[in-house]
Amino acid sequence: MKSKSPFLLAAMLITAVALAAPAPSGQGAAPKKPGIATRRPAKPAGSGAKLVPVTSVEGITEYRLANGLQVLLFPDPTKPTATVNLTYRVGSRNEEYGETGMAHLLEHLMFKGTPEHKNIYAEMTAHGARNNASTWFDRTNYFETFDASDANLKWALELEADRMVHSFIAKKDLASEMTVVRNEFESGENDPARILEERVLSTAYLWHNYGHSTIGARSDIENVPIAHLQAFYRLWYQPDNATLLVAGKFDPGKTLAWIREYFGKIPKPARALPTFYTQEPTQDGERDVDLRRVGDVQELAVAYHVPAGSHPDAAPIDLLVQILADTPAGRLHKSLVETHQASSIGGYLQPLHDPGFVLFYAEIPPDKPLDVARKTMLATLDGFASAPCTKDELDRARTQLLKDIDLTLNNSARVGIELSEWIGMGDWRLFFLHRDQIRKATLEDVQRVAAEYLKPSNRTVGAFYPTPKPDRAEIPATPNVEAELAGYKGDQAIAAGEAFDPSPENIDKRTTRQKLGNGAEVALLPKKTRGETVYLSGTLRFGTVESLKGLDTAGSFAGDMLLRGSKHHTRQEIQDAFDKLKARVSVGGGPTQANIGIETVRANLPDVLKLVVEVLREPAFPEKEFELLREESLADIEQQLSDPRAIAVNNFERHLNDFPKGDVRYVETPQEEKADVQAVKLEDAKKFWERFYGASHAQIAIVGDFDPAAVMPVLEEGLGSWTSAESFERVPHPFQDIAPADRSFETPDKANAWFLAGENLHVRDTDPDFPALLLGNYIFGGGFLNSRLATRIRQKEGLSYGVGSQFSASPFEESGSFLEYAIYAPQNAAKLRTAVEEEMKRVMQDGFTEDEVRQARSGLLQARQVSRAQDPELARRLSGYLFIPRTMEYDAKVDAKLAAMTPAEILAAWKRHLDPSKMTYVRAGDFANASKYEKKPGGGSPPPPSK
Question: Which string of DSSP letters, residue by residue, matches 817-829?
C-alpha cells in the first residue's frame, strides 16, 4: 500500500544487526573470568609479526600473518570512505544437534562488548559508521563503512581484533538477547513465502545442515546454554579461520602496520578445526511439502540439488536459472505470468561450500488454481531438456549476469562485502573465476546441466512414485579449490578515480547548475570515479491539487507502464539494451511526479539517456503489460491484508493525514485501493500521460564520471524541447493538528506484532530548532543500537529486534512528524508500551546528558559526511535541492549548528515541539492468542497449530 505522507515512514528501515545464521559448539578452556570467554594461553605472534604476500588479483592483494589470518587489501582512493570486513569461515553448516541458531545468537552477543570496548553500539554511532553483521550457511561476517581517516580505520581494526579475542559472551547478555533473537524469528514467521522456502529446503536436505534455517529452531534459540556459545566462540573465532578485508581509501603501508599491531599479537591456536564429513545422499524421488498457515497469496517453490559453488558447473547453472527465472524474458514468466496463472515468478542459484541448490518460485493470486500453475511450472522446468537453449537466451542471460558483476567491481565497498560469500565457499578468488566461467559457458554447457540436474527425482515439490529404473542426479564432489586456482591471475585491476572531498563547500564548488530550454533544471557534478561509474537522479513534476483529483490510480499506472514498452522497443528490448549498456535504470511515477534513476559508466551515459527519453516521451502502453501490471498490483495488495506491519502503517497514516477521498493526499484503505486497481482502465493511464507528462518542471542531477559537453546536448534535445501542457503547483502538505487516538488491530496467527506511535509537528526544516530536534531524535531512537529506545527495549529488556524513532520536517512549510516504532511478540504489548512511554517521559523531564550529546554530535556529523560520499545519495540530494531550491550551504549550516549543540538547547526544542499527550498509538498483532507464543516450561514454544 502506497504511503501518502512525504515525511512519515519515509525511511522506516529497522536499524538493527542483520543476523541470520548458526554454528557449532567446540572445544576450549573454561573461562578464566565469569562472563568472559577468554583464550587458552599460547605463545603470542607478536606485534611485529610479518605479513607475507600470497597473491594478487585485479587490485586485491592477499597477505598472511603467522597466526593464520588471511588479509585482503583493496585500495580505492576514489571514495572518501573505507570498509573493514571480517569474515569467519563458519555458519549454519557447522552446527550440531540442539544448537541451531547458535552462530546467530553469538553474532548478537559479539556486539555486547569487551573489557576495552564496553559499548560497541555507542562507538559505531560516534564514528558515524554504516555497519552490520550477518551469518549464512558457510560464513559469518562483520563490517563497518566509515569516513576515511587514520583514526577511524585504526578504531575499526582494533575493535575487530579485540572482539575476536575478548568478547563478553556472558550469561546476562544471553538472557536479554535471546528474546530479541526470538522476536526476529517471530518476524520471519509472518512471511508464508519465507516459511515455505525453509520447509522445502529442510525436506530437500535429509542429513546435511543446509536444510536448517540459519536463524535456528525456536526451542534451540530459547535454551542453548551459555557454555556452548562460549566454546563455539573459542573454537571458531580465531585468526586461522578468518579473512580480514580492507577496501576503499586508505594507506596500504600504514594499514599493514596496524594489522600487524592489532592482529599479529593474537596467538595462533593450538587446536585443530573439526572436519565435517556428512554428505547429502543422491535424492531418489520427488518430495512434497504442504504448508498451511494464515495468508492471502498462494506460493509455489521448487528446489533442485546442484554442485558446490566452486564446481565448474556453477556458471552454466547460474545462466540456466537466469534464462528460466528472468522477468520478462524468462521461460517461467512467459508460461506463468503472461498466461495469467501467476502474478510473479523468480529463482536463484545458492552457490555454497558443499553441493548447494537452485530454487524457483511463483506467486499465485488467491482466485487462480494453484494446481494448474504447478503443472505449468513443472512442465516448463522439465521441458528445458527437450527445448534447447537459444543463442539469444544465453547472450541475454550472460549480459545480465556480467553487468551486475561489472557494476559490483566498480564499487570497492560492494566487492568487500560480496567476497564474504566466496570466502565461505573456499576462496575469495572464486568470485573472479566464476565470472570467467560465465564468460566461457556455451549453449551445450547450459543444456547439459539442465539435463543433469533438472530431474523430477532431484526436486522437492512432488510426491514419491516407485519406479523400476530411477533416473537420479549424481552430484559431483566439491573440487580441490587450491588446484582449481593455482596460478590464477584474473583480469587487470579496474582503474581508480580521484579522491573526492564530500564536504558541502567542495560539493557546491564542483557543481554547476544550468537550465534547459523549457526551464528544466540540471545540476552537474563531474568527477573521476572507480570504473568510470556515473549516477543520475531526476524528477518530472506535474499537476495541482485540483487537477489531480480522482487520478491517483491512473497516475500510478501511467508511471509504472513507462518501462513496459515504447513505440520503438518492447519491454524485453528495453531491458536488453540497458543490460548491454551496463546500466541499472529505474523509471516510474505516481500522480504528482515521475522519477528517474540511472547507474552506468561514462561511455554509455549518452545512449542510456536517449533510451530513457524514449521511454518517457514515447510509451506504447501495451495492453498485455497493463493487465500483467494490474495482476501484480492486486497480488501486492492481497499479500498485505493480514500483515501486521502493513495494517499498522496504513491505519497510522490514515489517522494523521486528514484529507478527503479523491484528494491526491488521501490515504486509501487496502479495500479502496483494490477496488481502484480493479476499475482502472488502460485508457485512463494513457490520458493521464497525455495530459500531465512533460519536462518543464523537471530537476535532474548527475554525479560521477561523465562529460558535460556530451551529456547536455542529449538532455536539451530529449527533455529541453518537451513542455508540460498542464500547469504545475506543488501539492502542499500543511500541518494538521490531529486529535490523538489509540487503536489495536488483530492479525491472527502472526507471531510478530507492530507498534507505532507519533504525532504531527508544527515545524519546518529551516526552523532554528530543527538541528536540535534532529540530534535529539538521533539520541532517542535514531542512532545505532545505543539509542535510548534500543538500550532500554532491546538491550536491557529484550522486547524487540527492531526499535527506533524518526523525525522529519518539510523544506516548504511548517509541517513535520515524529514517530516511534517497534516489532515485538504479542504477549509483550503492555511491557513495550510502558517502556516507550517511560523513555519519552524521562527525556521530557531530564533531557540528555553531556556525554550523550557529545557522542551523538560526532556520530551524526560523520554519518552525514558518509551520506554525501555516496554518489547515488548525493545525486538525489542535488536534484531535490534544485526544486526547493537550496544549495549545499544549507547542509553546512546545519552541520555547524549540530557541532555546537548543547543538551539544554535540545531539551528546550523538544519541549517546544513535542507533546506526549498528543501521541497516536497503533498496534497490530495476534493479541487474542498471545499466550500461545509464550515460552513453555522446559523448552521452546510449539509452532502455531495448522488451520
Answer: EEEEEEEE-GGGH
State whether residue 377 is helix, strand or coil.
helix
Q: How many residues does the chain have?
A: 947
600 Cβ neighbours under 8 A, 6+ residues apart: 533, 534, 581, 582, 583, 584, 585, 608
728 DSSP assignment: B
Query: For residues 856 and 791, is the Cβ–Cβ distance under 8 A?
Result: no
Closest CA to 79 of 449, 414, 400, 385: 414
Identity at 895, one-letter amino acid code:
D
Please give the grid coordinates belonging to residue 43: 605463545
pLDDT at 238 over 80: yes
Task: Tell me the per-residue pLDDT of 889-947, one tens digit each, with 9 for 90 and over.
Answer: 999 999 999 999 999 999 999 999 999 999 999 999 999 988 776 765 543 333 333 32
Q: Which residues contact 171 (CB under 8 A, 6 or more apart)?
A: 35, 226
Cα–Cα distances in Å, from 479 out to 87, 309, 313, 355, 671? 22, 9, 11, 10, 54
pLDDT band at 388 (very low <50, low <70, confident <90, very high): very high
How confident is the model over 308-329, as a mean pLDDT?
A: 96
Q: Hey, how many other C-beta atoms are within 10 angstroms of the C-beta on 292?
A: 9
Give phi and psi for 135, each to the nearest 5. Answer: -130, 140
Q: Give all domains of the chain, ordered by start, each with its CATH number.
A: 51-90+98-241+251-263 (3.30.830.10), 298-474 (3.30.830.10), 504-720 (3.30.830.10), 742-933 (3.30.830.10)
pLDDT at residue 42, rounded to an integer: 38
CA 376 to chain centre: 32
Quote the mean pLDDT of the chain: 89
Place of cell 519465507: 194
State the cell numbers at 448. 547439459
CA atoms within 13 A on the CB side of 232: 31
CA gap 241, 267 in Å, rounded:
13
| pLDDT band at 39; cut points 50, 70, 90 | very low
Taking the C-alpha atoms of residue 240 and residue 901, their distance in angstroms, rounded to an integer, is: 46
- If phi over 0 gives left and psi between -120 and 50 gives alpha, with beta otherwise, what is residue 928? alpha
Residue type, 757: A
Mean pLDDT throughout 207-226?
A: 86
State the alpha helices, DSSP H only, in 338-383.
370-382
> Which residue reads 535471546 in cell numbers?
178
pLDDT of residue 11: 30
Task: Please tell me the distance from the alpha carbon of residue 840 to that of residue 803, in angstroms, as a whole number.
Answer: 14
Model confidence pLDDT, tens digit, residues 126-159: 999 998 899 999 999 999 999 999 999 999 999 9
